[in-house]
Design brief:
Layout lengths: L1 E2 L4 E3 L2 E3 L4 E2 L3 E2 L4 E3 L2 E3 L5 E3 L7 H12 L6 E3 L5 H4 L2 H7 L4 E4 L1 H11 L7 E3 L5 E3 L4 E6 L9 E5 L4 E3 L18 H13 L3 H11 L6 E3 L10 H12 L5 E8 L5 H15 L4 E5 L5 H10 E11 L2 E2 L1 H12 L6 E7 L6 H8 L7 E9 L5 H14 L1
Helix pairs in contact: 5-9, 6-7, 8-12, 9-10
The protein binds MU-OXO-diiron.
MU-OXO-diiron (FEO) binds next to helix 2.
GO molecular function, one term: FMN binding
Family: In the N-terminal section; belongs to the zinc metallo-hydrolase group 3 family.
Protein name: FprA family A-type flavoprotein
Length: about 375
């Protein structure tokens, strides 16, 4: 437990056993599930935690309550990592009311088979829950990350309870290995990033608030220069590249495509470009997806495979299209010994993506690099540099 302010206490938990968050994102530094108690004339608890941490969460809650009883359970978001203990809470504290959107109340019926409407305070945009000195103003935040999501703002301590927004991968009880934005960016693009316009709408609403602290549902409590985090979110929500460099995700079966990638990377570096390459066989696709959004220029390099493209590249392209990939310059390296068709197939996979500018040069490698394909690499360098 830690104090966020004198009257707001973090009662969340840290999961160091989890390997895959949401059954797909590797979280080598664990995961935090955050929940808070606001102590005032009335007491509000915000959200719960993942099911297997119920015991620890209730122990934290009881310690924070110091013999008092909670009046409200505020449900900002109904996904299981936050909502799993709603039913247990409502049974343990039969006089408490649940405060949530109508959509969340409907989801509670689905998950718990219980209609909490008689014990509910439904919220709409602008609704204010008075606790005493604290008054929570509710802000609709649909599709960040589910449709029922609301955030709330406490003008007393200038705290934004931001639901999944401004979250990150990694437990919060250990020193992070990298700056907040490294894993927050992977979290954003993987989990929230598909619906950038919804995030932009939310940021416009939040611009009118004096925010000193952001309490998200994952990761550390954010204080200090909050504009740093908000500015990053503005960039991410608008799909604006953060670097003019080049990202080259690739697959290579016997190393020949990799040699073409290495040549491209070396020549681009000589030309002064920042370059990152990534072998898709050795890295989880979520890291590649994030870098594809980070850089302005992406060169996809893969082999023709079963008349299509290599599976790990197909997975990356599927996920990019599914996450609203846009506003980038794109080039291709294809390899095929007798019928190279990978570039055409890769381009088809991106057909739904908006504002992509394609390079004039596509590098075709027939088995191994030769004079012709080396020349094509140099032409591609000239275009990208
Ligand atoms: Fe952290 Fe969308 O749940």
């Amino acid at each position: 437990m830690e104090k966020v302010t004198d009257t707001i206490i973090h009662i969340g938990v840290n999961d160091h056993n989890i390997h895959l968050f949401e059954a797909q994102y590797p979280v080598p530094q664990g995961m935090a599930y955050n929940s808070y108690v606001i102590l005032d004339e009335k007491i509000a608890v915000t959200d719960t935690v993942e099911e297997s941490f119920a015991h620890q969460w209730f122990a934290n809650l009881e310690e924070a309550l110091q013999g008092r009883k909670p009046d409200y359970l505020i449900v900002h978001h109904m996904e299981g990592d936050h909502s799993a203990n709603i039913q247990a809470f409502m049974e343990k504290y039969p006089e408490a009311q649940v405060v949530s959107s109508l959509a969340a109340l409907n989801m509670m019926k689905c998950y718990f088979g219980v209609d909490y409407t008689p014990r509910a305070i439904p919220v709409r945009e602008g609704f204010v829950l008075e606790l005493g000195k604290h008054a929570l103003q509710f802000i609709a935040a649909p599709m960040i990350h589910w449709p029922e999501v609301f955030m709330s703002y406490d003008a007393c301590d200038k705290v934004l309870f931001s639901a999944d927004a401004f979250g990150t991968f990694g437990a919060s009880d250990q020193e992070p290995e990298e700056p907040w934005e490294t894993e927050a960016r992977r979290y954003y693009y993987g989990i929230v990033g598909k619906f950038g316009t919804f995030t932009e709408t939310l940021l416009k609403k939040a611009a009118g608030l004096d925010i000193k602290t952001i309490c998200s549902l994952h990761g550390p409590v954010l204080t200090g220069d909050v504009s740093h985090y908000v500015d990053l979110y503005k960039k991410w929500a608008s799909y604006t590249p953060e670097s003019d460099g080049v990202f080259i995700p690739y697959t290579s079966i016997y190393g020949h495509t990799e040699k073409a990638v290495q040549l491209l990377a070396e020549e681009l570096k000589k030309a002064g470009k920042e370059v990152v390459t990534m072998n898709l066989a050795e890295n989880d696709v979520s890291y590649a997806l994030t870098l594809a959004f980070y850089y302005k220029n992406i060169v996809f390099a893969t082999t023709t495979y079963n008349g299509g493209i290599f599976p790990t590249m197909e997975d990356l392209l599927f996920r990019l299209a599914d996450h609203s990939f846009c506003k980038r310059r794109v080039g291709f390296i294809e390899n095929g010994s007798w019928g190279p068709a990978a570039a055409k197939t890769m381009k088809e996979k991106l057909v739904a993506c908006k504002e992509l500018e394609y390079t004039d040069t596509t590098v075709t490698v027939k088995g191994a690099l030769n004079d012709v394909s080396v020349e094509a690499v140099k032409k591609l360098v000239a275009e990208l540099a």
